[in-house]
Amino acid sequence: MSKVLVSAACHAIANIAHFIAVALATRAFFDYLASDKIDMQQSVEKIAFLVCTMVIVSIFKQQAMHLGFRLGCYVKSAFLTMIYEKSLKIKSTGYKSIGEFVNLCSNDATRLYEASFFVCGAFFGPFQLLAGAIYLGFYFGKSAIIGSSVFLLHLPLSILLGRLYARKRRSVMKHSDERVKMVTEAVTFVKLIKMYAWEMPFAKKIFGLRSKERNSIQSMAFIEAFGLTLAYCLSYMAPVITIISAVYLEEEITVAKTFTMLTIFGIASSAMGFFQQGLRTGSELVVTLKRLEAFMNLEERKIGYEEPSNEDDVIELQKASFCWNNPDKTNTENSCVQEDQTLSVTEDATLLNQKDNDPQIKVLSQLHLTVKKKSLIGVCGPVGSGKSSLLMALLHEMEQLEGVCNVSKSIAYVPQQPWIMNDTLRENVLLGLPYHKERFDMICGACALDKDISDMESGDLTEIGERGINLSGGQKQRLSLARALYSDKELYLLDDPLSAVDAHVGLHIFDECIQNALRVKTVVMVTHQLQYLKDCDYVVYMKNGCFVEQGTYQDLMTNDQEFAAEIKKYTKEYENDEDNETNNAETKPHVTTGEVPSMHDDEKEKNEGPCGDEEEQKLLEKGKITSAEHKSQGAVTMGTYVTFFNYCGGFIAFFLILLTNSGGVILQIVSDYWLSYWIKNKDFSQFSNINPLVNISNTSNNLSSTIKDIDTEYYMTVYCIIAACMLLVTFASCFITVVILLRGSTLLHNAVFKALFNATMEFFDTTPSGRILNCLSKDVDEIDSYLPGKMIAAIRFFTRGFGYLFFIGVAIPWFLIPFFFICIAFLLLNHIFRKTIRAVKRIENVSRSPVFSHLSTTLQGLTSIRTFQKERHFIKLFRLHLDKNINALFYFGVSQRWYGLNMDFLCHACTLITAILVIAMRDYIPASVGALCVSYAMLSTGRLQFAFRLIADVEARFTSVERLLYYIRSVKPEDAGVCKNKTEPKTKENWPQNGCIEFEGVSLRYRDHLPFVLKETTFSINDKEKIGIVGRTGAGKSSITVAMYRLVNPSSGTIRISGVDTRQLDLDTLRRELTIIPQDPVLFIGTIRYNLDPLREFDDQQLWDALQKAHIKDMVSNLPEKLESEVLENGSNFSVGERQLICLARAALRKTKILMLDEATASIDANSDSKIQDTIKESFSNCTILTIAHRLNTIMHCDRIMVMHDGKVVEFDTPLKLLSKDSKFKEIAKAANISLSANDARM
């Protein structure tokens, strides 16, 4: 509060000093100038008084602006920190997407920052006007009060315009939120969008949202242009009304009075313009504060659970019921949240698509369970039964409706979809804890990560991309498990941790990690891998949000109810070989908890690493995959300006902007000239031998009689015509400039988005999403909201300032000599300032990206961060990123204030020189012209320094254009380097005729410096053949799909589909004829219909048929809106299993000849999986199917099995033949307890 008061006090002093300078110093100088006697001492005193008051004004005004700017930095920093800290506490993000959070932290934070240094000073405008009116009333007479009253009309109109502006700002923010939300989703799931060839539908939707945003901004521009025109109108009507009133009231009009009045009205006009800008900023502030209030009112997560009453218990549930929202609270957000997008997964289909105020039914009902310490609990059940919701309830992420729920506070959590940070592998495991090499290595061994780490170029210091982009699904899952182990908690909640790993690795993890390393811990494991339940101490079988059965494995099998039926169905086709687990387990060091140092001991030790700091730094650099953000050097190139104005409409658009904006200022100077001409001498002939500008004087100081002799109506008519033309041009210039620049920014935005969507996957692998979001949110907002206004002001103030000085130079030619040297100082100062402010602005632009990336990462892993109690750690990291950005912003402001103050001093030198010349040449320059020159010199002080600062600021804002153009010019498109001999159109129309696939010597790596993931891979697949692909994690299974889709172009070799080299096909044609169900199911914001059919190619019956094939029709038909039911970000209001089924329905609609399933049923229970496999055999019988699976039961029916190892096909034959001999596949089958005899009957 003290900073606000100090800033306001400086603004008050600056305004008081400004008024004194105008009202007293200017009047005294003009009176002295019009007097008959000139005394040297008095001349010095008058000039010194005039210039000193102006210097004081500049010092306090710049200090006030500096304090306001510094306050803005404090406010912005506090605002962003508050938003971030709140995001860590909210119960759920509900219907707020990551894009909306980013928009809140970019655009809204900027509005709050601006308001901090605008609003304080803006509201002194009316007081300055009131003081000026009172002073003129005493000095000039009643006519001045009549003229001043015109400004009173400005106040209510400005307030009305401010309200209209606020309404439009809300509309802009709404459309901006929607656009940024959509862009965020597109960037996050760009891989799937490319695979499905959906770039155009997404682009069209985003372009449509951008068009709506642009229309709203144009409406705001219309309001702002009208307000600015109104301000000009009133400022030019006030003097003429005052003079006309003075004539008819027969008040004395002198040169001193006239030009004092004109100067005061000029200052009042600037103050009211600043006031109007303050109202606009205040209107935006109101919108921002309401959005902030809505965000801060989101319900926070309540941690009211207590430790179990019995010390031997870890979990105590007694008649406990849970839902996602409290039905008694209507202000909370609907929250079915998934870890992947900060939302917890609801597994109860009945909750889908419910709104905030809908009555919620229980997700989990009447749960009763007591878990003892050091026990292993297995939780199973069908899709949508509430398994993941149970873990969310234990993590305090759900609303407890009734009963008792006491849980240990020491919890580690492994989510179903792993949360991976863009950091080193080591830091992903440590999560801020001290590094202990022995403990770290043992845990990595237990989680089967040791071989993966040894294969990495920089070991555990290898950088992991966003969302684990450079890791396989199994590696991400094991990394998440290692993080939990390293945290050394008492209770471990594991959500299907073995779904993404192959059978051999799964067996190793279950033995070495879950049973051995965690044997003295309590583990609750949700799983669809039913073969592990027999080793659990206690088993819970869930259905419809209830515990249907619970007890030991043997007891449940003896009861022979639903659980036993599920187990029997799962194992009926396979016989267990009890010796397999012992004989075929991978040879690894036996991990026991006793061998792992306690975290309590670890925390006391000094952090140790595998190598010295220098060597470690080299490894960090070697393992880095994220490219450094591009930062241009030097001046913004002319090419940047030319390219941008080409988007705006070319040279004509630029010329129109320049002409209309400078034309308005020229007309203003002409109107000033005509006004001075009006009130002056009626007899010009006596001055015919003098400069035309001088021939406007009156030898008499009393002009009342002269005015009466002049045709008032004539002069008033001419003045009104000039003013009307000026106002028309002013309005047109505002509106035309905004429309033209918005056209350019929209086309530029669309071009950038197209360039990004056409980029290779390598670009997305090495570019953090926060960097892209920064580009498409804040940089676009810079061009939309700031560039038009600053460009308009820069042209006007520059034209006006130099117009004033030009007038002085013509009236007093001797002024041009010292002005030449002042111009040199101007240019030198401007060169230094522009160079500085460009560099600082680029740093500020670049330093924003880590802030957005960190925010996005936090929101994606919100549940994990809270579970591991790492809020303080992540707040500290956020503040480090934020401090770098705020520091750059602060130096940006300091540079402006330094430049403004020095420019003010140079302008004061112009005023000093002008005053001296006017006094010295009094005999040659009439008093009226001298007064006008001094008045212009004083007015040029603010105009000229502001003009140069705005020009530099415009150049700084053009760094945002520069960044956008960089992506357009430098991002490598996918088709680059591909064979140019495309197929004939006739071939494209008939392709593919069959589903034959041929790989011939294909080698592939994701980037040039990385090892090959496919090595001379050769195989052939026949039409309609069903192929199962197996192999250890990292063997190259998913890389086959990457190569087929040409997400990465092979380094060598040929891929043929239906006899055609895929390099000869355009990407859209290729990808539309392939279908994939990815390992991580992806749903988009919209409706179920949109997710199934974004191109609107199918009717309702076809959609329902596809849902039927995916065995999810009943769930969708029970939703209130059915196909129009809402899907939240990442499908967070559906369970992971339900998402996979919807993705399967989406695939069924495409009806392509080739279908690829990449662990498509990993998160589905065995019963649903069996039904899905039957559907695939029936509905896709005419397709060639490639199934990548870790569940061998899903591929045992395939025609052939492909075994991958180290990027090569080591085995490729029928399941029977591979199981009949010593083979890699047989080893994998044994690890999964699948024997030959079980499959003889099938073959």
UniProtKB/TrEMBL annotation:
Ranges for domain ABC transporter come to 346-569, 997-1231
User: Which molecular function term from Gene Ontology is one that the record holds?
Assistant: ATP binding
Membrane disposition: Multi-pass membrane protein
The record's region (Disordered) falls at: 574-613
- Composition-biased stretches, type Basic and acidic residues, lie in 598-608
Instruction: Show where the ABC transmembrane type-1 domain sits.
Output: 20-284, 655-956
Alphabetical list of InterPro entries matching this protein: AAA+_ATPase, ABC1_TM_dom, ABC1_TM_sf, ABC_transporter-like_ATP-bd, ABC_transporter-like_CS, ABC_transporter_C-like, ABCC_6TM_D1, P-loop_NTPase
One GO CC term, this protein: endomembrane system
Q: Which keywords does UniProt give here?
A: ATP-binding, Glycoprotein, Membrane, Nucleotide-binding, Repeat, Transmembrane, Transmembrane helix, Transport
Give the residue spans that cross the bilayer.
Answer: 43-60, 117-138, 144-166, 220-249, 255-275, 644-670, 714-742, 804-829
Provide an example Pfam family for this protein: ABC_membrane
SUPFAM superfamilies recorded for this chain?
ABC transporter transmembrane region, P-loop containing nucleoside triphosphate hydrolases
Membership in a protein family: Belongs to the ABC transporter superfamily. ABCC family. Conjugate transporter (TC 3.A.1.208) subfamily.
Q: What is this protein called?
A: Multidrug resistance-associated protein 5
